[in-house]
Design goal:
The structure holds two protein chains of two kinds.
Chain A lengths: L1 H6 L2 H25 L1 H7 L3 H6 L10 H19 L1 H4 L1 H9 L4 H30 L10 H28 L3 H29 L5 H4 L9 H6 L8 H24 L14 H25 L2 H24 L9 H18 L15 E7 L3 H4 L9 E2 L2 H16 L8 E10 L4 E9 L4 H8 L2 H7 L11 E8 L2 E5 L2 H16 L3 H5 L3 E9 L4 E7 L3 H9 L3 H4 L6 E8 L11 H6 L3 E4 L2 H10 L7 E7 L4 E6 L10
Antiparallel strand pairs in A: 1-2, 1-3, 3-4, 5-6, 5-7, 7-8, 9-10, 9-11, 11-12
Chain B lengths: L1 E10 L2 E11 L4 E5 L6 H8 L7 E6 L2 E2 L4 H4 L2 E4 L11 H11 L5 H7 L16 H14 L4 E5 L7 H18 L2 E6 L2 H5 L4 E6 L2 E7 H6 L1 E7 L13 E8 L2 E7 L2 H10 L4 E5 L3 H12 L3 H4 L2
Parallel strand pairs in B: 3-8, 3-9, 6-7, 7-8
Antiparallel strand pairs in B: 1-2, 1-4, 4-5, 9-10, 11-13, 11-14, 12-13
Helix pairs in contact in B: 4-5
The chains are: A alpha+beta, B alpha/beta.
Organism (chain A): Anoxybacillus ayderensis
Keywords (chain A): Membrane, Transmembrane, Transmembrane helix
Protein name (chain A): DUF6449 domain-containing protein
């Protein structure tokens, strides 16, 4: 009896239920229409049933389900603890002879009941209506998982919202803080990474922006529940967090001064944390925005200054609850000075990040690529970008060294270079640079010409037999040759391997190709390889079997070619057949050998010569020559 | 017995209560006077255990009041701005109080229906301010409190209702030894109620006195003499204030009544009156002595 009176007070209980019971009703009605009623309604629709057969209850009416899940617990926390945020009711409730712990506990318990009961009722409904459905839409286990997932998320959001409610004296801020609380850890991380990029030359920001960041945002995690079932560990984490939030809330509640109702931040020591934290976050948003839009350091700095000032003023306004806060500018100056020092620390690289390279003999393997993806996913067999051979590691290392020593700013043509090392002691180092396209060819060359690079780059080179190859398609535009005969496949791939092993870096930089060679494996996996015009072995192989005509355009398909010296450097894509006709100074080629030479050299995107290729079937194609690669008869 | 010992309270920059010490004996009525913003409400909320003082102690029957459920069950605090749960009727509020306050007397609640002629099933929020205050008193008295803390309690009540409430207060103090702390910015309102009075100004308690004491020790004297006022007349009595109106001298004198009469008779005045002072007058003169101008303290 004494325990009962201590923990439970009927008067308070009735009052809370009368106050916030409607949340439970809304939730129940909302779920009733999204799940049982909706399912009954759709149970006559065969397509719908087939589509939802997998037991993914979160897929049914997901928009409403998730909207309710993401808003009601937070609304409920706001309404439950509204009594603390209004001066009159705060005074009144705390004049009653009830300890704060008990008051808190009763509100929490009622809140949890309000959130759990509707979900439980719907779960029971789902199970009871199961026999009446034409097909088995879900199993008992599916419903149980749905129940546990929904309840654990509801309680997590609810407890978080209760927790922030203890920190603030305003209901509207409680709501905002609740969402910020759950987005903050991922958000601040992303912001920091986006901003570090501007200060740390070589910072591989993509490496840190991995998808695992999503997992710390409960909202995103929940949205994936229809495809990815909740894991026991996930439930455990949510439960632990929920209880942690409750614990912190009670602790704060007992320390809270009742007269602080209507204040933005209830605990005075937290006010500077709020002011500068807010300023800092807004500053990072501004810096990242202007940096992404303009890609210039001056704009980044502008973003920092303008948005931090803006953030500071807003934070001050929230705290003071007035817009007349402009007299308190000295603290802002202090902030700017502090931030400038931090910025300088990064710029002058006091931690040696930008110039750091491990010693060469510590390196177990080196990573070299134009994006970060395979650094983390090295088990994927399409492509590999790790190098084990000493010579290659050395070349990558020297390239990296050169990038550190001589920083060049790309203007228009840029490419990404990602260099990483796995050290013998298990440490990982990764850097990412954007460099001008052609400036570093001498560094690319030795790496690209190595056998190891080719084996990494072309999966077909790593194969010792071709038993699992079903078919090969060699084709361009409207022509295609299909190889299905085993002997043909074996012989062609052997030739292709030779061709690729002998490919040089210079070949890869010239953009001239006939089309693609695609290799179709069992299980319908497909690999595509660019069919470069320089692949003479492949050409010879097709010629020998009389397949060349079927695989690509030849001189036999062409009526004539008109060549124009593009003195005005009009870009190729702007040329039209009419413009070619209008041009007086042009060379017209009819000779088959010359036409074949033209086809071999023709490419897209160059501006030195423009080619009008007139097919016998009436089609007209416009291509171009670079002045470095022209047939001997053109001058 | 309420004991307030060196209590201070700050609200940020503002020092709301500065080192206040006083006590209220059991079964007495204590009047807390002061203008708006003097700190009355803050002090009362601390006595009611709502706010926590920064310094000092507040005890009721020797126990600190803050978060002390046993003591809070015996206390009712009626704020100047009343709060009721939204959309509740008197009956629902009464049920709530019944579950909260163990000494709740349903019988008393029913009996008081005669004094407060309001339908118990009416929603409190629809009522007028005065009626809401009546409901607050009704509910408060029904919990049989040992300590009643009233912040500007009589605002908004008509004269008849005021008298009714005062009567119940007196009755509870006399019969059950209820202790009352009552605040007001209006002296007349509490003059006939209080046993003891404290005056707050800018957070400090500037006067604290027994009301009877206050009244018996200070007198208004009107005298006139044939010719000049004798030189020695004003020398051997404690004159707080004097004013000449024609030939009549009006002065406020502190001291025992008999002594003052004897002293004045000795000078053979042609006119002599000894009048009692109103509470307001007493304060004016007492505080004038301490360097305060009364208009600034009491509105």
């Amino acid at each position: 009896m004494p325990l009962k009176t201590f923990l439970f007070n009927r008067g308070i209980f009735t009052q809370i239920v009368r106050n916030v019971g409607w949340v439970s009703i809304i939730y129940l009605v909302g779920l009733l229409f999204t799940l049982p009623i909706h399912i009954f309604m759709m149970s006559e629709n065969k397509d719908w049933l087939m589509h939802h057969q997998t037991g993914r209850i979160f897929d049914i009416g997901s928009v409403i389900q998730f909207s309710l899940m993401f808003t009601l617990p937070i609304l409920l926390a706001i309404f439950l603890f509204r009594y603390m945020q209004v001066k009159l009711s705060a005074d009144y409730m705390h004049s009653l002879p009830i300890k704060r712990e008990v008051l808190f506990l009763q509100h929490i318990v009622v809140g949890m009941i309000i959130l759990i009961v509707p979900v439980a009722v719907i779960a029971v409904c789902l199970i009871m209506m199961k026999p009446f459905l034409p097909i088995s839409l879900y199993s008992f286990k599916h419903v149980a998982i749905w129940f546990v997932s929904t309840v654990s998320m509801n309680l997590l959001l609810f407890s978080g919202a209760v927790f922030v409610g203890m920190l603030t004296g305003m209901s509207i801020l409680q709501g905002m803080f609740a969402y910020i609380l759950f987005f903050f850890p991922a958000g601040i991380f992303i912001l920091l990474i986006f901003n570090l990029k501007y200060f740390l030359y070589g910072f591989a920001y993509e490496y840190y922006l991995s998808s695992s960041l999503n997992e710390i945002v409960p909202f995103i995690q929940a949205l994936n529940w229809s495809t990815k079932q909740i894991q026991p560990l996930e439930i455990l984490i949510y439960t632990v967090l929920t209880f942690m939030f409750y614990g912190l809330s009670v602790w704060l509640y007992k320390k809270r001064h009742i007269e602080m109702a209507t204040d933005a931040i209830v605990f005075r020591p937290l006010r500077p944390v709020f002011t500068y934290g807010f300023t800092f976050c807004v500053m990072l948003v501004g810096g990242a925005y202007f940096g992404q839009m303009q890609q210039k350091m001056s704009w980044v700095i502008f973003g920092y200054v303008s948005s931090s000032l803006f953030g500071y003023i807003i934070a001050r306004m929230i705290l003071a609850k007035t817009w007349r806060v402009f007299s308190r500018w000295k603290e802002y100056v202090g902030y700017v000075v502090f931030m400038s020092i931090v910025g300088l620390l990064f710029t002058f690289d006091l931690f040696g990040y930008k110039t750091y390279q491990p010693s060469l003999n510590e390196i177990e393997r080196a990573y070299f690529g134009d994006h970060i993806y395979f650094f983390e996913n090295d088990e994927i067999d399409e492509e590999n970008a790790f190098y084990y051979e000493k010579e290659n590691i050395r070349n990558i290392y020297l390239f990296h060294q050169h990038l550190i020593e001589q920083r060049t700013y790309p203007v228009n043509d840029r490419r990404n270079v990602v260099i990483g090392y796995d050290l013998k002691n298990g440490e990982r180092i990764v850097r990412e640079y954007t460099v001008p396209t052609n400036l570093y060819n001498q560094f690319y060359k030795p790496i690209f010409n190595s056998i190891e690079f080719k084996k990494n780059h072309y999966p077909i080179l790593r194969k010792t037999n071709f038993k699992d190859v079903l078919q090969i398609r060699i084709g361009s535009e409207d022509k295609v040759v299909r190889l299905q005969d085993r002997d043909d496949i074996e012989s062609f791939l052997a030739v292709l391997q030779q061709q690729l092993l002998h490919e040089t870096f210079d070949e890869t930089t010239i953009n001239r190709s006939w089309g693609t060679i695609s290799i179709l494996y069992e299980k319908y996996e497909e690999q595509g390889i660019e069919w470069r015009k320089s692949y003479h072995l492949v050409e010879q192989w097709l010629q020998d079997r009389g397949l060349l005509q079927q695989a690509r355009v030849t001189a036999d398909d062409i009526a004539e070619i008109k060549i124009i010296k593009n003195t005005k450097q009009v870009p190729q894509y702007e040329w039209t057949p009419e413009m070619i006709e209008r041009e007086k100074a042009k060379m017209v080629v009819h000779d088959k050998v010359k036409i074949e030479q033209c086809l071999q050299m023709a490419t897209w995107g160059e501006e030195d010569y423009i080619l009008g290729i007139y097919y016998k079937n009436g089609r007209i194609d416009i291509q171009s020559f670079s002045k470095h690669f022209v047939p001997p008869f053109v001058h | 017995m309420i004991q307030i010992n060196h209590v201070s309270k700050r609200f940020g920059e503002l020092e709301a209560i500065k080192d206040v010490t006083f006590s209220v004996t059991k079964g007495s009525i204590y009047g807390l006077l002061g203008s708006n913003g003097a700190g009355k409400t803050t002090l009362m909320k601390m006595i009611a255990g709502i706010y926590k003082q920064d310094k000092g102690t507040i005890t009721i029957d020797g126990e600190p009041i803050f978060e002390n459920i046993k003591q809070k069950e015996r206390i009712i605090f009626l704020p100047d701005a009343l709060y009721f749960f939204p959309h509740t009727t008197i009956r629902q509020m009464a049920d709530f109080y019944r579950h909260i306050y163990p000494k709740w007397s349903e019988e008393r609640f029913r009996n008081m229906q005669e004094l407060f002629p309001i339908d118990v099933n009416k929603k409190i929020h629809r009522m007028s301010k005065g009626m809401q205050r009546q409901v607050a008193f009704w509910l408060a008295f029904s919990t049989m409190p040992d300590v009643l803390i009233l912040d500007e309690p009589l605002d908004g009540l008509d004269a008849v209702m005021r008298q009714k409430v005062k009567n119940i207060l007196f009755q509870d103090v006399a019969e059950r030894e209820m202790t009352v702390v009552i605040s007001s910015h209006n002296l007349f309102e509490v003059e006939d109620l209080c046993d003891r009075i404290g005056m707050l100004h800018h957070g400090s308690l500037i006067i604290e006195k027994e009301l009877d004491n206050l009244k018996t020790n200070i007198h208004k004297v009107q005298v006139a003499f044939q010719g000049q006022i004798p030189f020695s007349f004003l020398q051997h009595i404690d004159v707080v204030y004097q004013e000449q109106r024609g030939s009549v001298l009006l002065c406020i004198v502190r001291g025992e009544e008999e002594q003052i009469i004897a002293h004045i008779q000795k000078h053979e005045p042609i006119l002599f009156d000894l009048l009692p002072l109103t509470l307001e007058e007493i304060f004016i003169y007492e505080m004038g002595e301490q360097g305060y101008a009364i208009e600034n303290i009491l509105v």
